[in-house]
Write a structure and sequence with these properties.
single chain; alpha/beta; Hypothetical Protein Tm841, Chain: A,domain 3; six-stranded mixed β-sheet
Length: about 270
Amino acid sequence: MKIKVITDNSCDLPQEIVEKYNIGVVALHTLLNGKDVKLTPDEILEQMNKGNTVKTSQVKPSEFEEIYSKMLEEYDGILSVHLSKKLSGTYASAVMSAKKFNGKVEVVDSRSTSAALGAVVLKAVELAKTGEFRESAEKLREISEKVETIFGIKVIDNLVKGGRVGPLVGKLSKMFNAKPILRGIEGEIKLYKVTLGFKRVLREIVNFINDNAVLDNRIFVAHVHAESDVDYIRAHTNMKVISCKAGPTITIHAGDGFVLVGFIVE
């Protein structure tokens, strides 16, 4: 079978990889003060710094239906791999739309987002080459159970507002330069540790990576204005690092200066 891989734009893969493997990307909506707009990550940060409200909204079933219909004119099947259903209704929209295509679309919950979703999507590309449609979908679901996400935040106001971390952590951050480290656990973002200063955050991330058996010796890193932090991670692990600037979705929630690492364990 000729299989197409589709994801959403919370998947922070470098554009050259998206183009090289012809990965389809469906965009979540960015809402500025309730209005649907298109903004770059830097524009999002600028609007947030002005006090404006910037949020994301899930992809609609009708949007998935349109792209599925178009892709199935050329492909025999679609692997549609998306951010965790516990983080967005995008997965549910994809499932709803897929029902209309008589088993030609397999929707996979990556149980992750950002660079960790990127790790799963690249595995989807590799599996699609086998031409085994159902088997590839089941294998991807198994892989999603083994995905790890860990990241550090410098500005945590949005996480406090969104309930990802408690207000006490927010107060400690402002008083003592305490920085939260978060992990993806069973498809949700959970507080992992709180430490003092971002250098210690990076050490904890590096230790976490090095304590795991990483599949293919390959990690995926997304960031906003944190190139030096990516360099630190690269220098202190023996991993192949695929990194890119984060897209709008994770930027809205994690803010300026964050760095996120995703990988699959063996």
